[in-house]
Amino acid sequence: MTAIDPRLADRRKEVAEDRARRNIKRLLRLIVFLGILGAVVWLFLSPALSVNFVDLTGVSSSRASEILDEEQVVAGRPLILIRARSVEGRLLSDPWIKTADVDVHWPNRVEVVIDERVPVAWVETADGWASRAVDGVALPGRDTPDETMAHIVLPQVADANVYESFEVIGSLEFVAALPVSLSTSAIIELRNGELWAIVAGFDIRLGRPIEMEAKALTLATLLQENLAEGSEINLIAPTNPAVSPPNRGATPIDQDEEEGDDGSGDNSTQP
Asked: How much is the average pLDDT of 51-72?
């Protein structure tokens, strides 16, 4: 049997001991790291960093509260598990909700601010009636019109094309800018390719669907005057409106002169 040099044996022993010490240190560092990681995970999942308050504002008609429950934005939910942008996207799937902001406030609060759409008018398209907001979105509810809002009668517009229809969007903008006392009974329709409205018993020639807010404001001002019953009001150029008394036709004006590229004209009879 070959004898091992004592010095070599001692060296092997030292190497083995060093290796064991290094392994123990690595194990200890791993244990400490895992302990810290576990403590951090526990902290973020603990009641200390969980939802205590959900501040929801701006809700009247939407399902925002139900959607938050479905997305588990509820008391006791760890804040770290709440994906604000994902929740916002789900909220925006509700037609009533125009905008939604979800903000996580550490350590224990979620703030949800909702801006809801408001029905502006009943709109008839090729697919029937629907109450719509000013941006054209159809809002859930009954599908038969009542007398609480204006009626926009455009059955020649396909429902799929509502958002691209200048006539629909322009009519909604016009109604939205009118005082409520005038808008609820207003009727808007298309006659010979032009928009016309019946407001407070007067025929209103609106022309192309441009400057609709200005046209509504001009009309509201005109109707404060003592106009003869049955007069026709021309608002093609809202800064230069014309009023034709009953049984008296307005002087014919070439359409190109009356309504230029900018929608303005200066040949109308002043009221």
From this structure: 96
